[in-house]
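Weekly structure sync - notes
Attendees: PM, LS, DV (DV joined late)
Agenda: review two folding runs queued last week.

Item 1: First target. Sequence and structure tokens pasted below for the record.
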Amino acid sequence: MSDELGILWPALAAGLLVAATHVPLGMRVLERGIVFIDLAVAQFAALGVVAAGALGYGEHAVVVQAAALAAALAGVLLLDRTERIWPEVQEAVIGVSFILAANAAILLLAANPHGAEHLKDLLTGQILWVTPAKLAVAALVSAGVLAAWFGLRPRGTGFYLLFAIAVTVSVQLVGVYLVFATLIVPALATRNRLAAAYALAAIGYAAGLALSLASDLPAGPLVTCAIVALGAATMIFRGKSAA
């Protein structure tokens, strides 16, 4: 049991770090009506990770991080530009960007005998195997993102750049799907109530990880399902209370 708890606590810490930055960012995403930007930017970051591996730098953590950040920044700068040119179809452009980045990653992994497994890890994450070194980096980046967010309240290009930095770190901790769930579900379910959104995300991570420990099922999908289930329950309860 002590060994299992030794795995669980770093995973929970990783989830709370992701929630710390993604909950307030998610509120801005909902406000701007660009819900799928997180999927697109996370996929750009994942593409950077895949590209680094394809070039033979998969074991060099600094190079992988740099490639992921460069790809995410390129993606958000592109989306920032398209929003200025075609604001009325920005959501569609975001969707197309996600599809393009996802299929580019598949093509880069086509010749890799472990490509399917690597792609699954990028999508669903390996939260149970988070290392102390990754947690330390994530904590430093999260502190910087939160300081900039609450201190400067960036908009426009500044928002996109801050978003890219946060997503680059989180997608390598918990995977694309869980990053999206953490960004959107708490803000959506609580109608942008910050404290309630943070509580929902924290409970979702704790419940999903506990279920994974008890069932031996993959942690990432279970946490995602737990957050969505809590979000749905919250919305139903709010609906009944309003009635």
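Item 2: Second target, run right after the first with the same settings.
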Amino acid sequence: MQSDEYKVSLENVFEGPMDLLIHLIKKDEVDIYDIPIALITEKYLAYIEWMKLLNIDTVGDFLLMASTLAHIKSRMLLPSHGDGEDDEDPRMEIVRPLAEYLRIKSAAEALAGRHLLGDSIFTRKVKPRDYIDDDSQTIQVGLFELIDAFQKILQRVSKDHTVEFEADEVTVKDRMNEMIQALEDKGSVTFAELFAEKPVKRFVIVTFLALLELMKLNLIRVAQSAQSGVIRLFYQ
């Protein structure tokens, strides 16, 4: 399969293990001081399986976090002896660094939003169509939101589809070029428009890998409508 031949490097581009934990907590609307460890661990491992499928090269870092969650889960199954410090909630092992990470992340985002000195800023004029969207408010899309959308597309793959013809195989580079051409023609496309109504699994994976690579190269930006939830790609 194409994903076995093409490895995606996400270093310094996409989120890390702690960000996946935050994503799951926000998605399930969980209090970080009362994390359902068993549920979050199960979902965390499921995301790792998706990342393995995509041949993402940072899975090892996520496995370390997964082992930490599993360790906390096992400690919570042990009986409490009521003798002091040993009875501290095992979840605090992850809650403390998680809370600190959220504070640092929030501060970094605040700093990034400040105005910089104008003499070192250069802007590129863009065509109005570059910012066409379903509504005026969008939110930033990260790796894990894309994996959520990717899972929904794969659910549309026919279970009866078992034959794939190698002669028609599309490479990641081919899909990158096709996506860039579509964006040059239209200005923007939705994530769903990248896939056929009844997609082939190989094509879905190659398309997703091409999307990640284009994001890494900063050739496109991806945003999600705050109202409709639609993910849209824009040409940078």
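Discussion on item 2: The chain has two domains: 1-120, 123-236.
Action: LS to circulate a short write-up before next sync.
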